[in-house]
Specification:
The complex is a heterotrimer of chains A (166), B (196) and C (651). With 166 residues, chain A is mainly alpha-helical. Chain A contains 6 helices and 1 strand, in the order αβααααα. Chain C is an alpha+beta fold. Helix content of chain C is 64%, strand content 11%. In chain C, β3 and β4 form a beta hairpin. The relative contact order of chain C is 0.08. The chains are: A mainly alpha (166), B alpha/beta (196), C alpha+beta (651). At the B-C interface, α1 of B face α11, α12 and α13 of C.
Chain lengths: 166, 196, 651
């Protein structure tokens, strides 16, 4: 996020100030943002918004012109005392839900938001049903002596001893 | 044993969606403004410095708002169609010249005074129109892109069809193609013209 | 001439792949030994021909042959040699050729390391790999030939995208593709088992090391991609939930589930259908990823220039390969036996729960990735599914998985009891709770997510350490045992990195004139100035900064802002001082007005970020130990017996 500095300096004054600035201002670096509190909120909000030009970047990260314009707009809205929801609504009114990286919960996104947990619940239920049915169908195995020996070896997590001591 | 067919069924559903997805453009963002009143603005006209234009000036007419800029490559592709269309005189077209100087990238507009920016904008936009033809009933200047934000512009060119009551009825994203003009914009405009 | 040789080699490769994909399969089905015997030589031939084609493309890049369209688009005479070589896979066509090269390499490896397998099994596996290869070679020849000529040739190339001019390009795609493509072997084993009807523990034992090998490459490939994004994009993000990242993460999640389910199938003969389905699933998701990246249906940073013809081809190919595999599955699966019995409380059940959680997580990622497409296809509008969604949904699914990760290895096969699990873990649990709760206090402020994450990480490591101690008392455990615990601890290390950097990273965006200093995480950074330098194909502004601790110089920092001659976009080359417990990450912004030589500089303090990738390395090492376990190398006796039995049956 580039804080926009509106002070305009001509080349001549810049040259004059140059050497002075170097000695006089050396010290603690100043934050780029005019108002770090506003800037922090701007970052927090714009990280959840999608840039419309470089569509794989967030509004916070994009260097596109429009992103910069929109960040300026959002900064202004923050300064006007708007809430995060109002700011997001402002952008949704113009660009639609597409700008929101966190899709709003509504009927068309219920599947998206609850699907994974419904899937998990369904899978766990299916698992329990499967295990029950399986327990009733599997015959207890008849073990030969050799089977038993190899099964015990497997249980102990070691490979069956090779015949040759390689 | 039907349950072993479930994976195949799910996969086939997925393939159907992927096939439909192949014919869609993931980058195109439909406008939520369609069906809503065109956002109000008041900006200077290109031809008459000091005089402003507002969408309410077009009340009672069906019209097109076309967003353009001289640095926009696709605008040039679209332009001959607009010029030819304007000669037929079907619909008034208002040109919204969008960030003429700032959008260019070559010039640092922050170093320009507002007056310098306005005159540079007029000079460049005017030169472009006299070179490529002027299809616009009038053109207005959105130098800082504020109007563009209210209209949800995210690329140039974009075109809005606005009805007599000032409601946006259609948005063309990207250049207007002959196909879009014939099949979408004109039939809708004709229908809107009959509405009171 | 060289490109034409490459093209010709590719046509021959298609013919060989078709032979490999048909005769051995038919031979195995009908019992024709001569056709079965074709499998191994065909795979060698296939590899040779594709290597020739690949070599020809590489030669065209090295020779700056700009009469080849692909070279002209992705190289430049000023491009350094290492990027001219890796530029071969810097675009769609060449990366596809790399895909096929990797596939034929895996096929060759199966031929070489499967001497102890029954010949008909090898023939079927090679046949399936041959068919997959044939599909991809056909795809290259029909839609994406990298050998197409440009007449007249270009004066100079358009240059490789500056973002790709990085060592990351040399290592990341080959690793990732080895992983992606490697799951084709597990897939081929699964299909071979379904075709032959021999879906048993021996099958699981054969395919297990191959699956683990592919998983190792995929783990490293994803990790490398993450590191690359971290230092290249200039602000230190390491995971974006971009569709293409998700496309590589999906096979990883399913592959991880597959590794665990193969363990049950190998040791207990259970879950055979499920394991086969996962093997089909892991490779299908690799193919789906290929479709998503190369068809343009989703917008992504990584997406190649899209061409609808390509999308249609891959979709048809995907539908044929996956559709026929799942049909085969539906036909054969009902006849498969269930395997050994086990109690509700057993390692088998815990591994099933592991699978359920991993697949739910994969389902969430798949859903989030494809949801915008589905909504658009149903004409319900456009929406975006981004990092906030994935973080919100993925994390809750990972928490129980991490918790059970410590429990699983303690549980016995067949039957276990709560007391049996709880007793050895009670110390680990106590320490994890205590440490989880207290660590955030020591480290920059209370945070529930850090407490949970650190607690889970310590829980996993503690459980592993306790089990290793208990187990080593009775002699040296096998490599597989070490591998499992190392991989589990790797996950814990990655979790530490993720929670710490997410919660405690700090960022300062400052204006720095020469002499100015800025504090970050107990260090001071002093800005000295910026100088102009020129690289082979770019000019750059190079910042001179110093990292100081208590006034003492730790190291000079040189972030750059590069402008490549071929591209207008400036590139930010961040400078990182990596460390075990923190990275200092500095990136240079823009020169500022004021005439005092000031620049905007961004300084990030990233605690424990390197643990994210350190964990991935441990996981890969764990995989390596597990895949090289003695029982896979000494399977000769059992396998020979199986082979004899198979020959007996065939004759």
């Amino acid at each position: 996020m580039k804080a926009l500095r509106r002070t305009l300096t001509t080349c001549a004054t810049a040259l004059l100030l140059g050497p002075l600035g170097l000695t006089a201002l050396a010290g603690e670096a100043t934050p780029m943002a005019d108002n770090p509190v506003v800037e922090a909120r701007l970052i927090a909000i714009s990280e959840e918004l999608r840039c419309l030009v470089c569509q794989n970047e967030s509004l916070a990260g994009s260097r596109a012109e429009l992103a910069e314009d929109l960040r300026r707009e959002v900064r202004k809205l923050i300064q006007d005392g708007k809430s995060d929801t109002e700011i997001k609504d402002y952008l949704v009114a113009r660009y639609g839900d597409f700008v929101l990286y966190r899709p709003p919960v509504k009927p068309t996104t219920w599947l998206l938001w609850f699907g994974p947990f419904a899937l998990l619940a369904g899978a766990v239920a299916g698992l329990v049903a499967y295990l029950r049915r399986r327990a009733s169908r599997v015959q207890p195995a008849h073990l030969s002596a050799a089977d038993k020996a190899s099964a015990e070896a497997l249980l102990a997590d070691t490979p069956p001893r090779p015949k040759d001591p390689a | 044993m039907k349950r072993f067919l479930i994976p195949l069924g799910l996969f086939l559903v997925l393939v159907v969606f992927l096939a439909i997805g192949l014919n869609r453009d993931p980058h195109e963002v439909p406008s939520p403004l369609v069906g809503k009143p065109a956002p109000a603005f008041s900006v200077e006209k290109l031809a008459e410095p000091g005089k402003t234009f507002s969408p309410t000036d077009m009340q009672g007419q069906v019209w097109l708002l076309n967003v353009w800029a001289s640095w926009c490559v696709s605008c040039r592709a679209e332009h001959p169609l607009l010029v030819a269309f304007s000669r037929q005189g079907g619909l008034p077209i208002v040109g919204l010249n969008y960030k003429e100087v700032r959008g260019d990238g070559g010039i640092d507009a922050k170093k320009l005074s507002p007056a310098d920016e306005a005159s540079l904008t007029r000079q460049r936009a005017g030169a472009w129109l006299s070179q490529h033809g002027d299809p616009y009933t009038l053109s207005v200047l959105d130098m800082d892109g504020r109007v563009g934000i209210d209209y949800g512009v995210y690329g140039v060119p974009e075109t809005y069809l606005i009805d007599k009551k000032g409601v946006i009825r259609f948005k063309q994203i990207g250049p207007i193609t002959p196909d879009a003009l014939e099949k979408k914009i004109l039939p809708l405009a004709r229908q809107l013209a009959t509405e009171s | 001439m060289i490109p034409e040789i490459g093209s010709f080699a590719l046509v021959l490769a298609l013919l060989v792949a078709l032979v490999q994909g048909s005769l051995p399969l038919i031979g195995a089905q009908r019992g024709i030994p001569a056709w079965i015997a074709l499998a191994r030589p065909a795979s060698s031939m296939l590899f040779l021909l594709i290597a020739v084609a690949f070599g020809c493309l590489t030669a065209s890049f090295i020779n700056n042959d700009f009469s080849v369209v692909y070279v002209a688009q992705h190289s430049n005479s000023r491009l350094p040699l290492e990027y001219r070589i890796s530029g071969v896979w810097g675009g769609h066509e060449g990366s596809l050729l790399l895909w096929v090269l990797m596939l034929s390499l895996w096929s060759l490896a199966v031929a070489a390391f499967s001497r102890s397998l029954p010949d008909d099994m090898v023939a079927r596996v090679q046949g399936v790999l041959g068919l997959v290869a044939a599909g991809f070679i056909l795809f290259i020849l029909l839609t994406s030939s990298p050998f197409e000529r440009l007449l007249p040739g270009a004066e100079d190339g358009r240059d490789l995208n500056p973002l790709l001019q990085d060592p990351g390009l040399i290592f990341h795609p080959p690793m990732l593709y080895m992983g992606y493509v490697g799951f084709s072997v597990a897939f081929a084993f699964a299909i071979a088992a379904l075709l032959s009807g021999r879906l048993d523990a021996a099958w699981a034992r054969w395919s297990r090391p191959w699956t683990t090998a592919a998983w190792i490459f995929l783990t490293l490939g994803i990790g490398l991609g993450s590191i690359w994004a971290y230092y290249e994009l200039g602000w230190g993000g390491w995971w974006f939930w971009d569709p293409v990242e998700n496309a590589s993460f999906l096979p990883w999640l399913v592959g991880t589930a597959l590794i665990h389910s193969l363990a049950v199938t190998e040791k207990r003969g259970s879950f055979k259908n499920w394991t086969v389905l996962l093997a089909i699933g892991a490779f299908s998701l690799s193919l789906l990823g290929t479709f998503l990246v190369r068809s343009g249906v989703l917008s992504s940073v990584h997406a190649f220039a899209s061409d609808p013809k390509r999308g249609i081809f891959i979709l048809v190919f995907l539908a044929v390969v996956v559709g026929s595999s799942l049909t085969l599955f539906a036909w054969r699966a009902p006849k498969v036996s269930l395997g050994g019995a086990f109690a509700l409380m057993s390692r088998e059940t815990l591994l099933l729960i592991n699978n359920v959680l991993l697949l739910s997580a994969a389902g969430a990622v798949l859903l989030g990735t494809l949801y915008p497409l589905v909504i658009d296809a149903l004409n319900l509008g456009k929406l975006s599914v981004g990092p906030p969604y994935f973080n919100a949904v993925f994390t809750p699914l990972m928490v129980p998985l991490l918790f059970l990760m410590a429990v699983g290895p303690v549980a016995r096969w067949k039957h276990t009891s709560l007391a049996e699990i709880a007793r050895p873990l009670r110390w680990a649990f106590g320490i994890a709770v205590a440490a989880g709760v207290s660590i955030p206090f020591f480290y920059g402020g209370w945070s529930g997510s850090v407490a949970l994450g650190m607690g889970l990480a310590i829980w996993i490591v503690g459980a592993s350490v306790l089990q290793i101690l208990a187990r080593t008392r009775s002699g040296l455990p096998p490599r597989a045992f070490w591998g499992m615990h190392l991989a589990h601890m790797g996950v814990a290390v990655t979790v530490v990195g993720i929670v710490m950097v997410t919660q405690y990273e700090s960022e300062r965006d400052v204006r720095m004139a020469p002499g100015d200093t800025v504090k970050t995480g107990g260090y001071q950074i002093r800005f000295l100035g910026v100088e102009g330098i020129s690289g082979p194909n770019y000019n750059a502004a190079r910042g001179n900064l110093e990292l100081l601790k208590d006034g003492q110089l730790v190291m000079p920092l040189h972030p750059e802002k590069r402008k490549y001659l071929s591209s207008a976009m400036p590139m930010t080359e961040a400078f990182i001082d990596p460390g075990l417990t923190r990275d200092i990450y500095v990136s240079l912004g823009d020169p500022l007005e004021g005439g005092d030589g000031a620049w905007s500089v961004r300084v990030y303090y990233k605690p424990f970020v390197s643990w994210i990738w350190g964990g991935a390395v441990l996981m890969a090492l764990g995989g390596l130990l597990a895949a090289s376990d003695r029982r896979y190398r000494l399977k000769s006796t059992a396998a020979r017996a199986g082979k004899l039995a198979a020959q007996g049956a065939a004759s």
